[in-house]
């Protein structure tokens, strides 16, 4: 039996690292060569086509995301209200497959190239879609927003039931609640790191009024003076969320406007 000498070991190490570096170089070159053509995060047709190509049904994209007109309404006001001379920090709660997250990131990047949006979502199965964050990351990359967005997989507040408690196909969130898991109180933890740094916060996660109020209470210390809050589903379909928006001044925000789907308010 031949013993491995120090020279043999050195040769093996050199061979190992040469192969490793060759694989890295090849993978990097392949990634650059096959990178998909950039798509416009504010163009719903392009976004939908990209996500449908990844196997997500069009009805999930349309029904599970903020409507295009409401996003345009939000963008118009953010461009008018937010400062343009500094990198902006945004917070987005409730990512699903990334439609509104990518839109918000693109909007803040349009205002200032070095803006950042932090996307918070527990990444639970939603509308039967497993690991939705995988689609979010792919979409952000396709939109060229992967350097302007940071994803955090966790609950904005305490653990809450997925899909707003609605059973979807063979998945019943009530039955699976005990097995669903994720880090909790992300917003409160961000308070310790960022306060008061957020120029805009967009909340479209849990649809229970009490939960939303706790989110907003935790959000308020995070907000930059005059920062903008965007709430989705403040309409008659979700009357309890509309009520929260109507009373948002009690939580430290002054109502600005609504298109009867999304509502905008400003940190007092």
Task: Describe the 3D structure.
The structure is a single chain. A 7-stranded mixed sheet has the order 3-2-1-4-5-7-6, with helices on one face. The radius of gyration is 22 Å and the shape is globular. Helix 4 packs parallel to helix 5. The chain is built from 10 helices and 7 strands. Strand 6 and strand 7 form a beta hairpin. With 268 residues, it is of the alpha/beta class.
Summarize the amount of helix as a percent range.
40-55%
Strand content: 15-25%
Please tell me the overall pLDDT: 93
Between the first and last Cα atoms, what is the distance in angstroms? 79 Å
From the helix content, strand content and strand pairing, which structural class follows? Answer: alpha/beta
Written as H for each helix and E for each strand, in order along the chain, the element string is HHHHEHEHEHHEHEHEE
List the uncertain runs: none
The shape is: globular
Characterize the largest beta sheet: strand count, sense, and whether it forms a barrel: 7 strands, mixed
How are the strands ordered across the major sheet?
A: 3-2-1-4-5-7-6
Global Rg? 22 Å
Number of strands: 7
The number of helical runs is 10
What is the compact description of this entry?
It contains ten helices and seven strands. The protein has 268 residues and is of the alpha/beta class. α4 runs parallel beside α5.
Q: What is the fold's blueprint, element by element?
A:
Blueprint: H1 6-34, H2 44-53, H3 58-63, H4 68-81, E1 89-93, H5 99-111, E2 116-121, H6 132-142, E3 149-153, H7 173-176, H8 186-194, E4 198-203, H9 209-219, E5 223-231, H10 239-246, E6 253-258, E7 263-267
Parallel strand pairs: 1-2, 1-4, 2-3, 4-5
Antiparallel strand pairs: 5-7, 6-7
Helix pairs in contact: 4-5
